[in-house]
Amino acid sequence: MHDGTSSAVDFGQRLRMLRDRAGLSQEALSHAAGVSVRALADMERGRTRGPQRRTVQALAEALGLEQDEAVELEKAAALGRPRPRTDTGPDGPGTLALPRDIRDFTARGPDLARLLDLARDPDPDRPSVTVVAGQPGLGKSAFAVHAAHLLAPHFSDGQFALDLHGMDPEPISPRDALARLLRAMGVAEAAIPADTDDRTGLWRSLTAERRLLLLLDNAADEHQVRPLLPGTGPSLTIITSRHALAGLEAVHRTDLALLRREEAVELLTRIIGADRVRAEAQAARDLADLCGHLPLAVRIAGQRLLSRSHERLGKLVAPLAAEGRRLDGLQAGSLRMRAAFALSYRQLPPDARTVLRRAALSAGPDFGPETAALLAGLSYDEAVTRAEELTDAGLLQSDADTERYRFHDLLRLYASEQVEAEDGPAVRDAALDRTASWMLRRATAAALHFDVDHERNATQSDPDPETAPAGRDEARAWLETERAQWLAALRRAHDAGRHREVLDAAVAMHWFSDLNQHWEQWVEVFRRSSDSARALGTRQEEAVHLNYLAWACNLCVHDPHTALASADAALTAARECGDGLQEGWALGYGAGALHRLGRVAEAQERLREGARCLASQDSPQARLAELTVLNSLGTLLRQAGRAAEALEIHRRSQRICRAGLPGRTDEVIALYHAVARQQIGNDLAALERWSEAEEPLRHSLAAFEAAQMAAWTEQARLDLGKVLAVTGHPDARETLRTARDALTELRSPRQVEAMAALAALDGTPAGTD
After folding, report:
1. Count of CB atoms within 10 A of residue 500's CB?
2. Taking a C-beta distance cutoff of 8 angstroms, is the pair 648, 655 a contact?
3. Tens digits of residue pLDDT in 721-747
4. Going edge to edge, which strands form the sheet with 128-133?
5. Which three-class secondary structure state does DSSP give residue 769?
6. Could you read off the pLDDT of 234-248 as tens digits, one per residue?
7. Spatial contact of 54 and 34, defined as CB atoms under 8 Å apart
8. Pairing relation of β-strands 128-133 and 236-241?
9. Most buried by CB count within 10 Å: which residue of 452, 489, 537, 733?
């Protein structure tokens, strides 16, 4: 093959002769042509094989050449310009042909379309660069290779692919990578500069006017790839990396997502064939889900099935369904899911490895820096730094709006394995105990912001007062965000026999739970707290927590049978220890369960008994309990067709609220007043006094909205909507629709009532809207 060496010499000799004839020094010609002295010297010495056309034109103009002389100089330069070598012939490392495309490549249509747009509309002054990054197993290299084959027709001057071995112990250096690229461009070994910067300069001069497609696969970091990027011209570079390469300037980013379920099934279909998938459609969907819709995992499952042509898909589902065996099942020949994760894990510094594996011990779908710090035994700031490193490495996904992180399911399994392998049971348990203790103390302190008796002591009881939530809004946000973590901490304390901690947390949660009665978890919280009270042998506390449990079973999960059993147990305990307050509450909660079971007469009797019991007591707590019992009694009377009696009882509740309750804040009284007003509005509606009913219902709705009590708010909205529908108010339809949607989301039994009211207003069968 012609290597162009003699041509380079011819050009250099010709250039020097023309410069001498013009009487110009290298410095003078450099200044006139806008070419560096060093570049000019390399040309004349034959070290540069053939400068680009615009460089030759600048030299010709500076030398004052006639047209025919300029043409001859250009011909000499053209003979020395290297020709890209993309063949796979005998030249060994000089060839950088694209790897073969994947026949069964699936999905990624929008991502491919964006790359095609870059290829069709290049910026001649700024080469396009796109970074394809993300977690192990997303199919970054497969995507990049497939894209390169699709885009190849748009790059007539060549397509090169270079594996940078970024995950190896010693990735390829920029200097060696440049040598391979230059050889692929046809530069003779002797003409390749020794210095990395000189190689970069030569590479950029050769690519400046060419339409090249460059695939840099498996990049280690920005420092490795930056010298390899063309500086000008219409080229396109596709970089793949397990790291975000956030330091690269002016690049496009292709962030591959997990496949959708149907895309994962389609990939499986292309691997093993449509007949097998059709024969076991549900098993195929289950496999896609168990693979977490991760392309590499789906491919491994598919290749394994392909090698066992008579094996049923369902046979592979069984071992993958067991979390402890899932990674064992995801291997087929040299393809192993565990190995893909291990490659990234081994690259991490020690603290980052610790954060990754310990974070797998966290509860719930995501975790925050506090949890990561506690589990890893690091400071908060250190945990944030390590978590961001893991995000950049594609091993964690960060939330777009909050400082929260999450695992892919399979990667979490791998990290859990590393806990057992590297930490062992003692270290693991110590990390979990440390985290649970801290989380439960903070949860208790945060919940106290809503406790009318202990709100002032909330911050002082926090494990880290300097970072403690300040005020109810921050406390609510923390309790909602960290719900899975503090619930896991409560379980651990209960199971470890730390019963006083459980009781303290549950008592603190009591008022907060009323704001979030749509949370089913309250049943578990109060079941565990009543168990802890029983274990401590305190009948009075057992009565308290059994009442909490009865409330949760009634209102949070709508289980009146369990609610009645809990209320009856609370009533027995309260009477044994002589606690009249808890006796009154137990009668009220039992009545609520009886009402839901259709035993209305018994429910009314218990409510009347509860009201008598509580009226004889003077404490502020007894007044609140009395208000609750009276409101419930009035509701039962109204539903029994005795709306006038109900209205009188609810007005009695309103008078108690207006008189005020010593030791209770205006905010608490306002909530009880809102309940009374809601019931008064419903009583007036039952009496067909529609115009009078609207005002108390609007006041009630506004109060619940201000208190952010979702379950209460939407029921009041439904009651108001029903009244507006009767009066023909223009807001009736929107009010009912909003209530229906919210009650459905809250899983409230009253969603059916909302659907019926909306259907009646629209004149359509319920459920068709």
Report:
1. 12
2. no
3. 999 999 999 999 999 999 999 999 988
4. 159-163, 213-217, 236-241, 128-133, 252-255
5. coil
6. 999 999 999 999 999
7. no
8. parallel
9. 489
